[in-house]
Amino acid sequence: MKNVTHSFVFLAHWPFAGSFGLNTDILATNLINLTVVVGVLIFFGKGVCASCILKDLLDNRKQRILSTIRNSEELRRGTLEQLEKARIRLQKVELEADEYRMNGYSEIEREKENLINATSISLEQLEKSKNETLYFEKQRAMNQVRQRVFQQAVQGALGTLNSCLNTELHFRTIRANIGILGAIEWKR
After folding, report:
1. CA-CA distance, 147 to 142, in Å (whole number)?
2. What is the pLDDT of residues 72-109, one digit of tens each?
3. CB contact at 8 A, 7 and 25
4. CB atoms within 10 A of CB 31
5. CA pair distance 96, 99, nearest whole angstrom
6. What residues contact 173, with CB distance under 8 A and at least 6 apart?
7. Which residues form a coiled coil (predicted)?
8. Tens-digit pLDDT profile for residues 38-82
9. To 10 degrees, the CA torsion angle through 176, 182, 187, 188?
10. Does this model's pTM top 0.70?
11. Of all helices (H) and strands (E), which one includes residue 138?
C-alpha cells in the first residue's frame, strides 16, 4: 500500500517542464494507462457505461464460445456416426472377403479334383490306347512272321519240287489231276 501512495505522491512531484524520462515504476505507469483508457471510454462513450460495454463484449464472447462448443459437439457426433458407419462397413467388407476367400478355396479344391479326375481318365485312356496299340503291333508282327514263314516254306517246297520233278513225273501228276477232275464232272 505504501507503493501505491508513493506513486500518487510521485505524480504530484512530477516536474512539468524541461524533462522527459522513462518511468520504470510499474504501478505508477499502470495507473496512468488505466486513467487514460477510462478517460477515452468516457469521452467517446458519452454516457455509455464501461461495465455495459464490457458486459456486452463478454456476452458476445460467451455466445461465440458456446456456439463453437455446440458446433464442436455436432461435428463430434457426426464424426462418431461416420466412424460407426465405417466400422460396420469394414465388418461387412471383412465378412465378404472371408466369404470370397472361402469360396475361392472351395473353387480351387473343386478345380483341383476335376483336374485330377480328368488327368486320371486321360491316363486310363492313354493306357488303354497303348495296350491296344501294343496288341495290334503284336498281331501285325505275328502276321508278318507267318507270311515270311509261309513264303519261305512255299519257296522251299517249290525248290524241292523243281529239283525232284522231272518231266515224266510232271506229266503223270497233270494226268492224274485231270482224271480226278473228269471223274468229278461225270458224277454230276
Report:
1. 9
2. 999 999 999 999 999 999 999 999 988 888 887 888 88
3. yes
4. 15
5. 5
6. 165
7. 76-103
8. 777 777 765 556 567 778 888 898 999 999 999 999 999 999 999
9. 140
10. no
11. helix 50-164
